[in-house]
Amino acid sequence: MSKVVKSTVKFYVKSLGKPSGLDIKQRDWWSKFLFETRVKLSVNKWPLLTTLFFWFIGFLMYASNWSQSSPRDRQSLIHAALVAAGIRGADSDSDLSNLYQMAWPIFVEVIVFGFISTTFLGHLNAEMLCGLHARHTKKHTVVIGYKHLGERIVDFLQKSNTPYVVIDTEAQFVSPLLKSSEPVVIGDITQLSTLKAANVQSATEVFLLINKLQEAVLCCCNIRFLNSRCPVYVQVFQDEDFDTHFSDELNVIPCKFD
């Protein structure tokens, strides 16, 4: 194996200098509320679209009655829309109209009001919220392992406004990121499901910063299974460690620090 490469991580660490602790930007209440609302919209997308589609069917039904009525008795299309929304009473006593008027309040109460109440009153679990954020992040840097060097790399990525996702095994190690609703995945780094949750498939680079070589090798194999193009930087402490555990097929870049 050739001499250990001084990779981009070395530049990151030099540019930061000595670590001075995390300086995570706290989102204000309004930004965090908008972010949670957007996430909840994505989670409840299909129920809300189903409700909208059901309203549209009702609108078409009452609009057809409008087209069939005489010009003198004809109401506006806005009237049909309001009847379909349950704001105005229906002019028709047909069975289909009665069935719609009975079913529509169920959609409104269960789906629409349920969504509104959870948006304003309820809060997603921090890990779930950060996990959803990570799943929708693309063209990003993945940092596996948040201790020491990982903190400094994330700090640099935040200051340079580079999208990133952090993976760690314990929530306590990334609690500052969880509180700030940053994209974080908690789980076993050797599992494909954990890497998929961090959207490794679309990552532009991966930093693997753990001291367990066997887990690092297995993690690299799974990373290459999901993404064969992005550079993977692996932290090693001895040249022999890399020569012994990592094969050329993995195509990873070793990073050693003095």
Plain-language structure description:
It is elongated and about 80 Å long. Strand 1, helix 7 and strand 2 form a beta-alpha-beta unit. It has a six-stranded parallel β-sheet, sandwiched between helices. It is built from eleven helices and six strands. Helix content is 52%, strand content 9%. The protein has two domains: 8-24 and 125-255, Rossmann fold, CATH 3.40.50; 44-120, no CATH class. Helix 1 packs across helix 7 (149-159), helix 3 crosses helix 4 and helix 3 runs antiparallel to helix 5. The model is unreliable at 1-9 and 11-27 (pLDDT under 50). By secondary structure, it is of the alpha/beta class.
